[in-house]
Amino acid sequence: MGVCPSRRRYIQMAGDESECGEGLTLCGPSQIQVLRGKHRDCEVVLLLCSESHEDAIDLTRKNGVVDRYEDWIALAKVPNFNSKSAWKSKKGLSEDQAKKWASRQLEEAEDDDDEMSKDGAVLVFIADGHKGKSYLFVPDLVDCQEGVLPENAVAFEWGDLDDEAREFSRRRKMRQEMTVEELDALLAKRKEDRRKEGVELFDDWLIHQIQSSDMPVEVVLESPVPAEEVEIHTEKDMALPPSAPSCLRGIELDSDTDSDDENDGGSDAYIDYLRRRLSSALPPERLHCADPRELGEGSEELSLRDAFQRLLTQPRPKDLEEVELDALGASYADDSDGTESHESEKNAAGGKDDTVPAVPSFEAFFGAASDVLYYHPEVKMDYVPFLRKCVGSPEALQKFFERLFFSTVTETLSELTLTEETRPFTRIRSLIYQKEKDGPVYRRPKERPRIPVKVLPMDCFLVASQSESPRTWVSGLAQRVKELGGEHFVTCAQMAYQIQVKQLLADPKHADEDGDYFEAWLRECHPRIYEDIDVSDPAELLKNTVPSESTPKRKHKLGEIRIPNVQEAFEELMQFDPEERRSSRRERVMANILVDVYMLCIVDVALALLTAEAILRTQKGPAVIVVYAGADHIRKQVKFWESQGFSSKQLPEDGIVGQEDYEEFEPHLLEMPEALRNFSQLFPVP
Predict the structure, then answer these.
(1) Where in the chain are the domains?
(2) Which portions of the chain have biased composition (kind: Acidic residues) (predicted)?
């Protein structure tokens, strides 16, 4: 495989053109946008860094190429395969011909079957002169760990040519836990290897700037909000939530994952590694995390989860569904027909972290929508009953989320229909599996990854620290910014939130330029089309037509498929009768999109308000604020801060380093100008 030539942009922002640092290029963000502005008497520079949510292991690959180079890798020892159990075999090929033949077989199989993976396939070649016999084994399809092959056999495994990355992926796929300490040590070693190639990782560059700069540097990350910023609030007179209604108990069991990666996110993602590195280099008051969607859970990283657990002064009471299951002595359901399964029970036990309930929060209850929409559609949960029985209209949904993030919890809950009759519908997933109303009751196997908060938390939940009346974390942040004299920032952020939400809800397909909502819609509502097209780049699905993979001359007319707007969606959802049936896949994905729109956009509010708070706390300038987040979030931040008077005026290339998109196998490298090696050259602000 070849490497595409780099399209890097080199800009000189101030001073004389020079090599960056010691001639090192930067790997990490895809693009950096520099904006400068003034607030009161303070000069501020914003470095808005967009990323593509890469794993840290991928950003430390050779030469800044984050894509995997794959080929046949010689195995030191030939496994004891039984040739009769080979998936495919071929005679009369040389060793090189056998490798090409095996590669073609795997590629064709991948095209025909989305669940087929080349990774881990094994080719055994038995020489007979210059040619020989070739046997291709696919471990996922056949049990081939038996028998003995001749001594003149050689074996190859298809996989990542990066030995360390290949072993990392193997352990992750096998759910063999790599500790944070072990991972960070591996990354440190790989970064040193990259430095010898002239490549520096973003975290090392940023920490050096922080430590060498005479001016204060603050950092805002699209990373889970830490436990130190919230506290537990308990409503003493509020009863525990009742068990789920039949429409939730009867939802089908989780399906198998289509992904080889069982641990999306968590400590493996580069942004989480960046947070860990910055935590050791910055005082807590200068590092700000902006993503509240996993509040109380803290992603996959156990240290974050443990910090939330320490907020509890006493153990959480057992869920009433657990009480019911224990009283019945219920066993785990089988994934085929609802009968008892010891295997399901064993698998459901999970790791020790799965047995400890997450600390409840409104943010995590609604944040589950994004995980299911984008990463884990195999996990079954359902907002439809909640929207139907407790919300009831687009207007009520808007008022609810507006109050949730800009007012008090008491005012928020007043926007819902919450009665003894409707409270069972505040659950989105039941611990109980009961296929028919009067049928036997089973334990629902634990989901992986788990839905941390399965019921609207009205009796106990996390709130912003030191708030007079209980407020969610974002609402508390907005209140702090107001108290610092930034009411204008809050008003503008709230208006931007309303506009962004309105645009997405009016046309979820086209307003989401990344195509994620439309991909989810096709997957759930048009599965035959979804399985017959290339969905590796969801943005491509927004074209009017896309080629069929099974019939290359045929094209699917995706332009004719649309997602209902919010009014149409509620008209459909209000026809749902939770007493009569379970929700459909169409209804569920519709509800997930409605909820996720509000949760996705609130991350942009949090990024803007944390940046505003950092600006307002700066007594005198100059100051530098680094914002690191996904590309779409950064685009929103650029737009917001330009509306506040910040600009790239007098900066070459409009203050941009890097590019938004990269071709496959193109190095993700930025040539850093001298001004980004010495922040003082970014001042004075014009």
Answers:
(1) 25-66+175-216+618-682, 70-160, 221-526+561-605
(2) 253-265
